Amino acid sequence: MTLKERQEEIIDEFSMYEEWLDKYEYLIELGKNLEAFPQDKKTDDRLIKGCQSRVWLDYELKDGALYFTADSDAIITKGIISLLISVYSGRTPQEIAADDFAFLNEIGLKENLSPTRANGLVSMIETIKSAAVINS
Amino acid sequence: MNIEYIRSQFPQLSEKVYGKQLVYLDNAATIQRPQSVIDKWVELSSKMNSNLHRAVHKIAADATEEYETTRDAVKEFLGAKHREEIIFTSGATASLNLVAHCFSEAFVHEGDEIIIAESEHHSDIVPWQMECEKRGATIKVLPVDEDGLLMVDKLPEILSERTKILCVAQISNVLGIVNPVKEIVSICHSRGCYVLVDGAQGVVHENVNVQDLDCDFYAFSGHKMYAAPGTGVLYGKKELLEQMPPFLGGGEMIGTVTWKKTTYAPLPQKYEAGTQNMAGTPTLKPAIEMIKLLRSEEMLKYQNDVRDYLLRELQNDPRIRLFGVPRGTVEKIALFSFAVEGVHHEDLALILDKMGIAVRSGQMCAEPLMDRFGVTGMLRASFAPYNTMEEAEYFIKSLHRAINMLV
Questions:
Q1: Alpha helix segments (H runs only) across B122-197
Q2: pLDDT digits over B53-91, tens only?
Q3: Are residues B83 and B27 in the same domain?
Q4: Cβ neighbours of residue B320 closer than 8 Å, sequence gap 6 or more
Q5: Is B365 a catalytic site residue?
Q6: A118 chain-B contacts, CB cut-off 8 A
Q7: Alpha helices, DSSP H only, in B237-278?
Q8: CA torsion B284→B286→B291→B294, rounded to 10°?
């Protein structure tokens, strides 16, 4: 599945939920199912700034693709980062660097979920982007 | 007088968010403004917009009259002895910074000590840290106990002959506990220590009489007590304010200015440099009227019923850890900060937001207090006198639903 196809798939999934609370239920579920993040990797250099909750993001470059792992102490934030990982993990740095992250607007995440950057969505996006740029 | 009539005076309260009726429970951050305050603001902006104290023309005179009668109204409201003890500022933070800087300039020297309550807002901590660093003075902390009550019995041993001032909120913005300010003042004064009271929350909920409290300074913001944002008050005892140097220079704070020597204006102008908030400050008058209206016996009973209901519900839920638990004769306002076992405060705030409920989550500008209780943040629901019992019940129901979604 291409990056665009995966994004379309998420837009479709989100369009099924009319109520915001249902979208949260979905994100909470994603957050609960996110792969465990090693405790010893929860270091300050992996901590994303600008979040009310703490978010740690780590990545590795393998066979030309970026693989992200992350954790958060807040479950909705964890759901959001899980969503981002499911879109961007396994993509090439060039592919990620060229993406505009516009699908987040289409599912209403940006304006509805980070009105004051409370959950640091913008910071998470920036961190993923800069990982892509550094490795391009 | 009933709650529906009161609510009809606040335009923001009838707004909807995400298609749901707004339930505004972030009043300790900013309280909503009544129409009377908005009208006053508009009137000043559209009928007498002019610089104060300077010009001889009609609208400048009208604006100055509005501004100076506000000083009289605040003086009466606080029970101050002299009108020049009322200094208008841009808010509680500005008031507290003024005291920290000018009081320290006059009275704090190397080796001196300043006591700050553990439950203070950053605005009452950081300005003092800045001053202490400059002057080689130190800060001592008056701790709170596990329930969030100040350990006043420890005060006599914390005070020393080097203690210059103690800083305490009348009501903590996190704990909602009404602190025994009068008792604290009396202990401090007996040891030659001055007292600065942060009244940002207190002025909204308590009857304040600064002469009865005998505090040396009392600071509060306009936007937390129904007035316009960017307004604030510092009350200070005249004899102290007169001994302190000016804060900012320029505008009407001068006597005469020459290259050789500049003299300063008497109080209160000495502390009101630059152009004043001429449209905002006079809104303190209708704001004070609103406060009085909300303190009728009937309204107070209603507010107490709402508070008691919330306290009961939150205390009886084993999943909830409430910070600021009243004990004995100690009073608590309807301000509830808490943590839920295994649930992040931000998740709760996000879900409640989508239910139409505005609450606060995070450190609430009181990081040392968060550390004291070993949490990264709390959820805070702060009620105003215009909040209804139905809103309280909806909040509790929604909170349960949100917790169930998250655990």
A1: 126-135, 155-158, 181-190
A2: 777 899 999 999 999 999 999 999 999 999 999 999 999
A3: no
A4: B314, B338, B339, B340, B341
A5: yes
A6: 346, 349-350, 361
A7: 238-243
A8: -160
> What ipTM score was computed for the predicted complex, to two decimals?
0.86
Of residues A20, A28, A77, nearest to B406 (C-beta): A28
pLDDT tens digit sequence for A42-63 = 999 998 876 678 899 999 999 9
8 Å CB contact of B362 and A25? no
Kindly state whether residues B282 and B300 are assigned to the same domain: no
Let me know whether B336 and B230 are in one domain: no
Domain that holds residue B286: 39-290
Contact check, Cβ <8 Å, A28/B18: no
Counting Cα atoms < 13 Å in the Cβ hemisphere of B16 gives 4
Contact B238, B81 (CB under 8 A): yes
Nearest beta carbon to residue B346 from set A24, A28, A52: A52
Question: Any chain B CB within 8 A of the CB of A20?
Answer: yes
Q: φ, ψ for residue A109 (rounded to 5)?
A: -65, -45
How many domains does chain B fold into?
A: 2
Q: Of these residues, A27, A30, A51, A96, which one is catalytic?
A: A51
Q: Which residue from B343, B346, B377 is facing A77, i.e. has the nearest CB?
A: B346
Average pLDDT of chain B, as a whole number? 96
Domains of chain A are: 3-134 (3.90.1010.10)
- The nearest CA of chain B is from the CA of A52 a distance in Å of 7
Instruction: Give the C-alpha separation, B133 to B128, whole Å.
Output: 8
Task: Tell which of B290, B305, B335 closes a domain.
Answer: B290
Domain shared by B382 and B244, yes or no: no
* Helix ranges (DSSP H) in B48-178: 58-78, 92-107, 126-135, 155-158
Rounded to two decimals, the pTM is 0.93
With CA atoms as reference, report the closest residue to A27 among A41, A10, A42, A39: A10
* Residue among B130, B120, B145, B71 at smallest CA distance from B97: B130
Q: Do A53 and B349 touch (CB under 8 A)?
A: no
Closest chain B residue by Cα to residue A20: B354
Q: Between helices A20-33 and B345-354, what is the axis angle to 10°? A: 160
| Same domain, yes or no: B111 and B203 | yes
Contact B48, B62 (CB under 8 A): yes
- Cα–Cα distance measured from residue B358 to residue B252, given in angstroms and rounded to the nearest whole number: 41
Which one of B257, B274, B290 terminates a domain? B290
CATH of the domain at B391: 3.90.1150.10
* CB–CB contact B362 A52 (8 Å): yes
Contact A28 B405 (CB under 8 A): yes
Domain shared by B163 and B97, yes or no: yes
Neighbours of A125 (CB within 10 A): 18
Q: Are residues B372 and B231 in the same domain?
A: no
* Beta-strand relationship, B320-323 and B335-340: antiparallel
CATH value at residue B79 = 3.40.640.10
